[in-house]
Amino acid sequence: MGRAQSFDTDTVVRAALGVFWELGFEAASLPDLERATGLNRSSLYNSFGNKRGLFDAAVEDYLDRVVRPRLAPLTGRDVAPEAVVDYLRQLRASLATPGSLPARFGCLLVSVAGAPLGQDDVVRGVISGYRTEMLAAMTRGVQAHAPDLSDEELRQQAETTAGLIIAALAMARVDRDAALASLDAALWHLGNH
């Protein structure tokens, strides 16, 4: 009979998420993950199978704890007219806060998309799913904000808003001012509809 697990899985996954978010999958070493989680290699392997299993768990945690709660006001039954503007302002505040993970490292999934792991079919599907969720949320938000838009105008505004958000999340790691300018552009476009 195996030994009972003596650690909290959520705590371990969140500690690993910080490492993957900062370093990326490829650069995150097992010693980095051991230090961050407080677990030894055998415990990590027994619990998650391998480094990739831990990464997959961290991505799910990222989606469930970071991404989806922020999108929730845009995906619920009733979307407030200012929900999309509030989302953009909150994201802007997060990226403007020195030391926050988003300000320092942007978006985990956007970063992974440009890394070698982004070519993996499963990871590609997760990233594509993230974009689909983002676009659906922006569509609902823009529709609530500007209900008189035609279907084509709504599609274009939602695509523009989602694209500017992704650009901001990609730039946050290297040029905070450019990231904030992308979000300002998204807010400007919404203000003109």
Automatic annotation (TrEMBL):
Matches recorded under SUPFAM superfamilies: Homeodomain-like (SSF46689), Tetracyclin repressor-like, C-terminal domain (SSF48498)
Domain HTH tetR-type as annotated: residue spans: 6-66
GO molecular function: DNA binding
DNA bind region: 29-48
Domain of life of the native organism: Bacteria
Pfam family, one: TetR_N
Keywords: DNA-binding, Transcription, Transcription regulation
Protein name: TetR/AcrR family transcriptional regulator
Organism of origin: Kocuria soli
Lineage of origin: Bacteria, Bacillati, Actinomycetota, Actinomycetes, Micrococcales
